[in-house]
């Protein structure tokens, strides 16, 4: 059985499911753009650190190239993992998987903290996740 026949033959896809798939797609594209621009962020990172560290009372921290490279690589792998998570959650939502509904709620709650656009995405995810037709689609 393919993915299309599994979800569509069991239960119809509600139109309110777009309240989940569209915000997840926006987050997915946003993370992909962040991944593409990350290699060019080293100069910006250095400038932000040099202005922020004295405000925190840290005057004599030496920013070595190795420290900056490890910071960028760590950020890259975290963003890559989040991007893959968003992709698989979106696919799970389209298939009507129960774990994807739970992940949408978690992503929505954490998106509320991500300023400036995250609260809109988080509210859309939470609104869509608790629609009666969507809850029925996921078997809740």
How many strands in all? 0
- Which structural class matches the secondary elements? mainly alpha
Q: What's the average pLDDT?
A: 88
Order of helices and strands: HHHHHHH
Amount of beta strand: under 5%
Low-pLDDT sequence parts: none
State the share of residues found in helices, binned by percent.
over 70%
Report the sheet with the most strands, covering strand number, pairing sense and barrel closure: none
Our Rg estimate from Cα atoms comes to 19 Å
Q: Tally the helices: what do you get? A: 7
What's the layout of helices and strands?
Blueprint: H1 3-10, H2 18-37, H3 42-55, H4 65-95, H5 98-111, H6 118-129, H7 132-137
Helix pairs in contact: 2-4, 2-6, 4-5, 5-6
Which structural traits does this protein have?
single chain, 140 residues, mainly alpha, 0% strand
Word description of this protein:
The chain has 140 residues and is mostly helical. It has one domain (15-137). It has 7 helices and no strands. The two termini are 24 Å apart. The mean pLDDT is 88.
In short:
The protein has 140 residues and is mainly alpha-helical.
